[in-house]
Design a protein that fits this description.
The complex is a heterodimer of chains A (about 100) and B (about 375). With about 100 residues, chain A is α/β, with parallel strands linked by helices. Chain A has 2 helices and 4 strands, in the order ββαβαβ. Chain B is of the alpha+beta class and about 375 residues long. Chain B has a domain of about 110 residues: 60s Ribosomal Protein L30, Chain: A, CATH 3.30.1330. In chain B, the strands form 3 sheets. In chain B, strands 5, 6, 7, 8, 9, 10 and 11 form a 7-stranded mixed sheet that branches. In chain B, strands 1-2 form a two-stranded antiparallel ribbon. In chain B, α4 packs across α7. Classes of the chains: A alpha/beta (about 100), B alpha+beta (about 375). At the A-B interface, β1 of A face β2, α1, β4 and α3 of B. β1 of chain A pairs antiparallel with β2 of chain B, so a sheet runs across the interface.
Amino acid sequence: MTTTTNGPIVGLDPTSGPLERRDDRELKPRPQSLDGQVLGLVANGLGRGEPFLDALYEEIATLSHPTGAVRVLKSSVSVAPEPADWARLSSEASVAITGFGG
Amino acid sequence: MRGDLVPGLAPTAGTRSLPMRGVRGRLPAQGFAVTNAERHEYTDYDALHEDYEKRGWTDGLPVVPPTPDKVERFLEAAGLAPDEVLGSVPTREVVVTAEHAAINAVMAGCRPEYMPVVVAAVRAHLHEKANCHSTTGTLSGASQVLIINGPVRKAIDVNCEGACFGPGFRANATIGRALRLVVRNVCRAIPGFLDRASFSSPLRYSFCFGEDEEGSDWTPLHVERGLAADQSAVTVHSTMTFTPAVDFTSRTPEDVCETLLTHLRRQGVFTDRFLGDGQNVLFVVGPEHRRYFTEAGWSKDDIRGYLWPRCQKPGKGERPVMLGGPEGMLIAAAGGPGMAETWILFPHLAWAITEPVDTLRRS
């Protein structure tokens, strides 16, 4: 599409701005190994997400040596985990895996 | 994808960013003056469009340049200060203001007089139970359907009749597009980022139409939802799947309803704890089917009264319809003559929300 305008044109940024960095949280580095890690297993509640995650844990356990799992089943498929779930994950798990069942 | 969020995408070389006004160096709000948005200067329209496209600020189609004077005219048309909050998406830490809506409405090609409708649509979509978090991030590529009611339809020429779902009608095309640009640019539902759709949908460019209130004796949708008949309103319904229920052979309301039930039971409606009983199925009834209902004296309530008990006990191979009650079935009259069909728009994990259009200046 070609539109001719005379002179400079000022356009406004249509976004809500760049994502702001927050000092109170940061992304942890991906661990080199799952040995000794506690796996958070977050199921969204659809389909067979829970047995899938259990099977995935068993498979991981044959490849490395995790020390346990924290299982979270979201209370609703359509919203984020509840604060209590986030608290459990951040306090008890050292890594987390989310699973979708459709 | 947005250039400043995704490595490898960046503004076009030579773009000049101007100092922001207001917070972080911006001037204080004065009337409708734009205060928050960063300004970028371009040599001409082509340079602007190329840069907006490269930054990921478009839906892939050309946009109208959102210049400060145009955006201010849109804010004035809605009678809103730029920092008026229309809603938020808490999980994305996003707050949507009137200024955001105005910038994206300009880009979508709206006229200033559409702005109150855009504002109502944004407010409706950002209702907690409209569930922007889920409906715009879902793998399913759910779309937002806008149904406009009341006098504003005629005032801004919203098509309610033939081809009302399709292209060719500026109000329909640009109001729906404006909401989707807000969803993309402000709510960060960017494909490959927070929009995780497997296929997405062409309905996401724009899906907006009006109820044909003049072509039907039925109570309009917004009146059924508690608003006055002379109040304009927008209903936003997030839909995951839809079915044009074509039936040329039925001649009675009962038979048309049986066709609708076949589709309803096949698809079903599922809910969850967050949404409870509040989800909706939308039936958009065309004039050929409407004729059989109105000739038999059937109201929208009569249709619901027939459908509801018959979809409560799914048979083998059928799915449940998990609505709170018959009132969860929304019915709108629209479309043109010829094709004997009713469109059934199934929900995606959200309530349909009806928001009044405030055409009065608040200043």
